[in-house]
Amino acid sequence: xxxxxxxxxxxxYGGMGRWHTEILSNVPxxxxxxxxxxxxxxxxxxxxxxxSVYGSEEEMLSDPDIDVVLIATPxxxxxxxxxxxxxxxxxxxxxxxVTLSSSDLQEMENVAKETGKFLTVHQNRRWDxxxxxxxxxxxxxxxxxxxxxxxxxxxxxxIPGDWRKEKIHGGGMVLDWGxxxxxxxxYLYGDRKIETVYASLTHITNQExxxxxTTILTFEGGTEVxxxxxxxxxxxxxxxxxxxxxxxxxIRDWQLNGEIIRKTGITEEKVVxxxxxxxxxxxxxxxxxxxxxxxxxxxxxxDIADFHRNVAAVIRDGAEPEIKxxxxxxxxxxxEAIFQSAETNQVIDYRQYES
Length: 355
Ligand code: NAD
What we know:
By secondary structure, this protein is of the alpha/beta class. The chain folds into 2 domains: 6-122, Rossmann fold (3-Layer(aba) Sandwich); 126-256 and 297-302 and 334-349, Dihydrodipicolinate Reductase, domain 2, CATH 3.30.360.
């Protein structure tokens, strides 16, 4: 620490590494002490941007000024770098997914315990506005008992980049986007156990790793959650669709377009049926206007820099970490169950893993 600032060493200066430097420029409690990337052109780029650059990982790890190593390399490199960093006396933030399996994570956790170092994971989408809106709606029971949540992200360009397409690097969409969406759901329902897991994977543009998936989780207390990632979807379904006994909420896109429709309590004595080609239906007829009310989504806004502020508070003052390893482990085990379900085409009785 220098002048009470927590000093980060950033490893990996690709898309996410650069994004970290932008976010951290607004966090005065933290300073980037230096950057290391395995590629020389990236080190040159970082230097040109005004950062100090290390010639090797060892050089960074032996710098006594570095308090925290922030790892933003491809997924398969997180574990070995994190373990070397903790052995060198550094605290560690790993990008998501922390690693590729729960046994790998257990090894990392053991090293954190042995060395007494702080290990956490950048699950930044807990601060996404769309998620915070849904969390508020659920917690405040705005829709009554929520019996179904659908959380989706859809794109149409296949798997981006290079290493994300390869199994050896921890590619695929379960590990890439799934880890975010599942972390959000488990954070939302932290105290509720999952009872069953079913999943299917897609391989439209890539045979080696999944280029999308759908999973259905059932939670104790009777909520079903669908989580879906698609990369071959030329028409996107809404980002969130939440069904409660008293109403429905939708968030359509990243711009937070959407609304809530709730029942007013006024009942229709006589439903006017709607005419369809094959006959009349009352069940699917639109509601009379006075029986429902349309409301705006609540305004909630997150600040991703809070993740880093929390890390600084953990290091400086022993504050409680926002992203805890037991939560990360729960997501990792759930991703393993998703792969297992997809491979066997079976619904997994998940209660055994949640005891
Ligand atoms: P990228 O390919 O753009 O960048 C990775 C960088 O790491 C490259 O510059 C590469 O040269 C470097 N690198 C590879 N191996 C290295 C090693 N052993 N030592 C040092 N440098 C090494 O990838 P990206 O999109 O920046 O993703 C990096 C990580 O960030 C991944 O784990 C990804 O899942 C994560 N990520 C997180 C978010 C988020 O919102 N939290 C978003 C995007 C990516």
